[in-house]
Amino acid sequence: VGARVPEVLSDVRASPPYCTEKTPEFSGDCGPHEAVSWVFFIVYSAINKFFLIPLIGGTVVNAFFESVDDLRCVLTPDEMRQFETCWGALDTYQTGYISAWKFPPLM
Question: What percent helix, strand, coil does the chain show, rounded to 5?
Fold first, then answer.
């Protein structure tokens, strides 16, 4: 919006004869009082500037780095499962260590 703020605010606060006033049958389509439109615009701009834009930017950057990390991974999840199965068979007591002579089957 930037430099067009006055134009947008004038559109928001439409008044007769450019709108239909409120009647018992129709709620009307005239804009709110000028102060209300300014408050709305300032609140909207603040939420947009300090919350929505950083949130969207952070999401995009996070998705980028996750995809880069996925490309760096040497092992697939399936290969990791096979390694864990083989390790579990060699480390029967679940100590986290295996003897040196048991190491070649892991290769």
Answer: 65, 0, 35
Residue 22 DSSP code: P
> How is residue 99 annotated by DSSP?
-
Q: How far is residue 83's CA from residue 89's CA, in Å, rounded to a whole number?
A: 10
8-21: per-residue pLDDT in tens? Answer: 777 777 777 877 77
Residue 40 above 70 pLDDT?
A: yes
pTM of this structure = 0.46
Separation between Cα atoms, residue 5 and residue 53, nearest integer Å: 19
Check whether the bond before 17 is cis (ω within 30° of 0). yes
